[in-house]
Amino acid sequence: MAMQHGTDKTGPARDDIMKKELRAEMTRDRSLRTAEERELQPSGEDQPMTAQAPETAFRGGTPHGMTGEDVALRSEIAQHLGRSMYPADRPAIVERLVRDNAPDRLIALAQKLPAGERYANVQSITESLGLGTEDLRG
User: Fold this and answer.
1) 89 has which bridge partners?
2) How many CA atoms lie within 13 A of 54 on its CB side?
3) What element of type H or E holds 52?
4) C-beta of residue 96 within 8 angstroms of C-beta of residue 80
């Protein structure tokens, strides 16, 4: 009787035993790694620096003329308003924030916008609210 290529003569029970042996061998190999291999490696020269204290607020990268809080607030307003609604007036901005389930503090800020003005973008809204804006140094 000629043996056919590609057929497996071990059967399902032997397959299960072989899988368990392989899994055990792979687990053992992982546990044998040295502690040095498991330690995080420092960033390469082409990689960004990591935060030394990740639980603290990131302070770098804020535009000149703005605080971190100004940047965060402007970003949050922009996320809720989107880009397609401009130009917009105070009622439209408040309505959009309410419809988007924005936090009450953002809705309260929008209600402080002067009536009758139209805003071309988030920058003009934050300027009108008296928040810090980018000071474009020339």
Assistant:
1) 118
2) 2
3) none
4) yes
